Amino acid sequence: LRKGTKSCAECKRRKVRCVWPADTTQVCSNCQIRDHPCSPQTLIPSTDSNLSVSESQRTRVLEDEVNLLWAAVRSLEATLTSCARAQSVSLPISEHNRSEAPVEQSDHTSRENNLSHAHPRCHLHQLLDTHILDSQGTEKTWQETEDQTSLVDLEALNHSARRDLQPLLPARSDVVALSAHSFVWSRVYTSLFPGVQMTASAEDMLDHYNEACKPDIDARSVANLLLSLALTVRQIPAEDLESLGLSMCSPAAFPETISVAVHRVVLVEDALAATLEGIETSLLFIRLSLACVNIKRTWLQLRRIVALAEMIGLPRTVAHLDITNTSLEQLRRYQIASDLWEGICMLDRFAGTMFGLPTGTGSYRLSPPKPLLRDGKVVPQVYLRYLTDMALQIQTLDESSAAGKSDISKLAQVHEIHKALEDLALSTPEGWFASLTSYLSADHMLQFWHQYLVVRTHLCFALQHDDAGRYGHHYNACIDACRSMIWRYVTLRPLIPSGISLCRVLDFQVMTAAMFILWTYSETSAQVVTTKLPQQIRSADLFNQLLPAMKTASDRPGGDFAHKAAIALCSLNSYMCNEDLSQESLTLRIPMLGIVTVRRRPALQKHPGS
Fold first, then answer.
1. Are 261 and 198 in the same domain?
2. In this structure, what DSSP letter does residue 95 have?
3. Sequence-separated (6 or more) residues with CB below 8 Å from residue 483
4. What is the C-alpha end-to-end distance of the chain, expressed in Å?
5. Tens digits of per-residue pLDDT, 135-166?
6. CA–CA separation, 467 and 470 (whole Å)
7. DSSP annotation string for 425-486
């Protein structure tokens, strides 16, 4: 019986009220009057025959069955191939019983086992390589591991990801319209960061689009195109985006849609992500998420990229490359792997220094940098490589300060970093640092970041500067670099396409320079030191130029850091320069720090650096 029903089947069919004379009666009033058999409603279980299945559902079921058949065929092929290899290669125990030597095999190789082969010889290898046993030459490189990683699982995941991502591809007309806006940011990214192959022109993006529409394309290639398009949409202002006449439903929501989809179908799957193509997709995803997602989430994703690269043995393989008996295709893959690992380390180390988070690649040595100059011009990737090496040293300096080490040891570290930065600056062509053009170039970003590292190098001692001239060298170096940063920011920030990750990076970094400038001239005003008045006036002028630039940037896409920083700096400036001491404290909302409450120190307790 159907649970909770009170009407009989006949009343239900006639759609009339079913009245029962009493609870004990077997026939309702309507059936009794009509002399009709009264039967209760019964539950009819659903079967395949009475379920309506749509055409798309039937197609999906058939596709899944075909995929399972192909997976079974590939599994048999892999098993037969592995058996043939095992029969052809065996450990020689003795000459007379070679055929009787036992060979241990496994019918199923898990992803975890495959990943473990990518690492160099460990203590277990030593136990298998003694005066009795020999395991030399049997370890697998990351290339062999990648080729043998569960082909069945990888093909099935690739098919599923491709099926989910290809419907997200916009119309060709939309790609044509967007490709005209992708040149500036892709050119800067490609010249600065190694590892990720960006679309260099509109023609390249259209060629990539044609490849992505093919039924057998790798899903990670589709994801790369979608992420490139999402980055392009992010940096187009809303009014310009509407004027393009795109056919997609909601262009403004397109980046978020792509970010969620790529993360769900590609990045969370280890079999897809733990490959060179998967790591390249992950790095491109980092650039999109850094422009619009919480920094901590982006940092966790970056840590996962480092872990995946370590699991497939990428760092050690790149460090111990043997080009003997290596094909051209393998050399090409090794070059891609080397560029990817270098790009991961550069991003990890520079981001760690900027956001005050520990790096995951600090223990790895990179290959020596290439020549800094080519045809008399600075090679941006090489220059950035030098800067990231120094950023790692600055993190060590910060750790020394946090550990309370002596000033003598920290001064030695500061001197070493300052000397390296100075030598790097002297290695550039004459007038390179003084050049600021009306168009965006990678050189502008490098010059800004160079000054940022100078500030970070001297900051700990510059804040201890006093009237006696203690640490005066560090104070002067720091304030000069801060002024250079603000001057460059005012010129450079309007040139950067809005909505890309570089906007947030510059907004966050210039806040360090602005806060130090605030400290210098408010501290000067408090002490009434006439010798510093010219510096104070110049710093105040620069600060007044910075705030309008930050407010203008805050109105553009990706300007959330600039908006918060501008409000915090205005409030801090008013608080520090106000002689009225009635306001005891000030609450600020600062990017990456969150809500911070500051208050003036009492005059008797005031010390340098407060």
1. yes
2. S
3. 513, 517, 538, 539, 542
4. 81
5. 555 555 555 455 444 555 788 888 899 999 99
6. 7
7. HHTSPTTTTT---SS--HHHHHHHHHHHHHHHHHHHHHTT--TT-TTHHHHHHHHHHHHHHH
Enumerate residues 6+ apart whose C-beta is below 8 A from 311: 115, 118, 274
Q: Is residue 18 part of a domain?
A: yes
Q: What is the rounded distance in angstroms from the CA atom of residue 509 to the CA atom of residue 363?
A: 25
Distance CA 173, CA 258 (A): 18
Residue where one domain finishes, among candidates 290, 320, 355: 355
Q: What percentage of the chain carries pLDDT values higher than 70?
A: 76
The answer to whether the beta carbons of residues 523 and 532 sit under 8 Å apart is: no
Q: Interior CA angle at 214 toward 274 and 212, to 5°?
A: 55
Question: Residue type at 55?
Answer: E
**Angle at the Cα of 425 from the Cα atoms of 422 and 431, rounded to 5 degrees:** 135
- Helix (H) or strand (E) segment spanning residue 598: strand 594-599
Q: Is residue 497 part of a domain?
A: yes
Pair 379, 349 in one domain: no
Beta bridge partners of 378: 373
Distance CA 394, CA 463 (A): 16
Summarised one tens digit per residue, pLDDT across range 545-567 is 899 999 998 888 778 888 999 99
| Distance between CA atoms of residues 45 and 575, nearest Å | 74
**Residue 451 C-alpha from the chain's centroid:** 24
Q: Dihedrals φ, ψ of 18, to 5°?
A: -95, 115
- Nearest Cα neighbor of 234 from 275, 284, 182 is 182
Distance CA(86)–CA(72), nearest Å, equals 21
User: What is the phi/psi pair of residue 124, to 5°?
Assistant: -70, -35
Classify strands 377-378 and 585-590 as parallel, antiparallel or unpaired: unpaired
Alpha helices in 25-120 (DSSP H): 29-34, 55-88, 111-116
In angstroms, what is the C-alpha Rg of the chain? 33
Cα four-point dihedral sign 513, 514, 515, 521: positive
Q: Are residues 378 and 347 in the same domain?
A: no
Sequence-ordered list of residues with C-beta below 8 angstroms from that of 544, at least 6 positions apart, any chain: none
The CA distance from 502 to 498, in Å, is 9
Residue 231's H or E segment, with its range, is: helix 219-234
Q: Do 419 and 521 fall into the same domain?
A: yes
Residue-wise pLDDT tens digits, 5-29: 678 888 988 888 888 888 778 889 8
Nearest-angstrom CA–CA distance, 300 and 286: 10
Q: 252-262 burial by CB neighbour count: b if 16+ within 10 A, else e? A: eebbeebbebb
For residue 589, list its beta bridge partners. Answer: 595
pLDDT at 199: 64
Distance CA 188, CA 395 (A): 26
Counting the structural domains of the chain, the total is 3
> What's the pTM value of the predicted model, to 2 decimals?
0.74
What range defines the domain where residue 533 resides?
373-605
Whether 389 and 278 share a structural domain:
no
Residue numbers in the chain where pLDDT is lower than 70: 1-5, 43-53, 74-126, 128-152, 183-184, 197-200, 293, 318-326, 467-468, 522-538, 579-583, 602-610
| Amino acid sitting at position 306 | V
The answer on 328 and 471 residing in a single domain is no
State phi, psi for 314 to the nearest 5 degrees.
-65, -45
Three-state DSSP at 45 gives: coil
Q: Rounded to the nearest 10 degrees, what angle do helices 442-462 and 407-426 cross at?
A: 160
Task: Give the bridge partners for 594, in sequence order.
Answer: 590
